[in-house]
Structure formats: C-alpha cells, structure tokens
Amino acid sequence: MSESRIETDVVIVGAGPVGLFAVFELGMLGLRAQLVDSLAGVGGQCQALYPEKPIYDIPGYPRILAGELIERLAEQAAPFKPGYHLEQRVETVQPARHGRWRVRTSAGTEIDCGAVIVAAGVGAFGPNRPPLEGLRDYEGQGPGTGVHYLVARREDFRDKRLVIAGGGDSALDWTLSLSDLARRIYVVHRRDKFRAAPESVREMRRLAEDPGSPVELVVPYQLHGLDGSDGRLTGVDVATLDGDVRRLEADALLPFFGLSMNLGPIAEWGLDLERGSVKADPVTCETSTAGIYAIGDIASYPGKLKLILSGFSEAALAAHAIYARLNPDTPLHWEHSTTKGVPGFAE
C-alpha cells in the first residue's frame, strides 16, 4: 500500500455533483480542496447509475443529461485545481493540532486539513436485487442483454425486448426514455398504482394504450423466474398473487427496486445521525462535531429537500462557514462572481 501526505484547507468526502460544486464555492473564497470518492470516477450516482438520464430541475437548464451536468461541474471546479483521490474511502477522521483534522483513506493517503465536508450522497450504495433463482448468472452479460440495474447507454437497448420492473420514478423514467428505441417494453408492477411523478405515470399509461407503442403494462404481476441458458436471457416469468404465471419474451431485465444504502465508516465518526443521514445546522451545515460539515442528500435538518439544487446552496453555506472558521481574524471581502471573475476564464 502506497502512502502519501497532503496538506489542504478542506477535504470533501464524495465527488458527486454537490461535492464538485463545493470545490467551486471554496475556490471562490481562496480555499483549496481535496476530494475522496470510492468510485472510479467523479459524479456519484449521476455518472455511475444514470449518465444519460435527463434532469429537469437544474436552474438555467430546462433539460440536461446527468452525465453532462457532471462534465460541466468538473469544468467549473477545474480552475481551482482540486486533488482527486478516487477508488478510495475515508477510513478515519482524527483531530489534529490547532483545531485541524487528519484524514486517512483506504489507500493510505493522509491529508491534513482545516475542515471536512461530507458530501457522500446516500453513502455506499448498491442495487436491491429481486429474489430470483439464478439471477447473478445473467448479470454482467454485455450491453443490452441479461440483467441490468442501471442504464449507462440508451443505445445499448435499441431493438431489444425489455422487462422493466418497479413502480417508482426510475422504472417509469427509463420506460419513457427507452420507448423510442426498444422493440418491446413490458412494465411489471405488483399493483396498478405507481409511486412515480404523476406526469410520468400519465405518459406511461398513454403509451401503454397506444397500439403503435412498444410499451405494455403488466399488472398486477411480480417477477417469478428467469429463462435462458449459458448466461443468455430469453424470457422472464411473472406471476400474480393467485399464482397465475405468464412468460414474457425478453432480452434484458431491468429491475428498479431502489438502492441498498449504508454510511460505511462515516457512521463511526461520532457524528449525530438521524435515519441514515447526518444531522447538520441549516445555516452553516456544520454537524455535531465542530469543523465537520454535511451537504447534499446525506445532510439532515428540519425542512430538508433532497434536491441537487438544495445541495448546491448548502455547498455555498458550508464554504462561507469554513472560511470564517479558518480565518477568524480576516473578515471576508465578498464579491459577486460577475465582479470578481473566475481564474482561467476570459472576462
């Protein structure tokens, strides 16, 4: 295991969209940042789970793909030269001299910093797998075939017969997104009521009633079994609660039953927790431990909205609170970005 020691102003745990924007907000205040993330690339869930999924509630972008948003945020952070420590977990956060912190990662990297921002989203995550015999035999079988828990490239599913299982936003979002590519889409749900956004439900039902659409609503059914051989999926069996079984010819199964999430080592840092989240002050985003801040989906406070744009606001609040902590004798001479400018960008 290689070891290195780094000194910086702030360590950001999590390189998702909110963590990336925190780099920008810190940089505009003259603060340096190092990011640590267990994934192989930046972007968190946006990049790892749904890079081609459109997002509609980012100010200034009526519609932007998740992967494109990450590219823009990384570009926005780049002038401030953050350090990235990918495929590493923060294992320990220990107090150091003069109110600073010593952060150590799973790769042996040691970072001395003045503050820590936890922007770890939902923490460590993985798919909730349906309890089907032989399920893992069909995982990882290549683009557009077998069992997939995310859609990295829409084009992989062109002309494929798909079974999409689930009743939430992910299931319906991908049904709508793939309806112009797939040969057939069976939407399987245990009841005829869905938890997704009402507009998505209406559009899915409209497609299901259109004779020219590839979408068929299969309710009330649940996943029952998989058919195929040598890792090649050929069909999915579904069943009613009464035991009536129907076989759906399929090239791929996309089960969207949410994510299994846990905080990992963060749960051992002595922070006040609340239902899998980290309690934070809504004004400063500081946690129960002075010098450690929480932003994004992992942060919890009364009235919290789990939206990316809320995380962006929290990044700004945390950055200003950290500046005051690290520079108690130097009042902030704050300027708008239109006045101050950004390093590396032409005026």
TrEMBL record:
Binding residues annotated for FAD, in chain numbering: 37, 45, 50, 90, 125, 297, 338
Name by which UniProt lists this protein: Ferredoxin--NADP reductase
Self-association state and partner proteins as the record states: Homodimer.
Recorded family membership: Belongs to the ferredoxin--NADP reductase type 2 family.
Species of provenance: Rhodovibrio sodomensis
Pfam families xref list: Pyr_redox_2
Cofactor(s) annotated in UniProt: FAD
UniProt domain FAD/NAD(P)-binding: residue ranges: 9-303
Enzyme Commission number, as recorded: 1.18.1.2
Gene3D superfamilies to which the protein is assigned, alphabetical: FAD/NAD(P)-binding domain
InterPro entries reported in the protein's UniProt record: FAD/NAD-bd_sf, FAD/NAD-binding_dom, Fd--NADP_Rdtase_type_2, Ferredoxin-NADP_redctase_2
Reaction it catalyzes: 2 reduced [2Fe-2S]-[ferredoxin] + NADP(+) + H(+) = 2 oxidized [2Fe-2S]-[ferredoxin] + NADPH
UniProt keyword list: FAD, Flavoprotein, NADP, Oxidoreductase
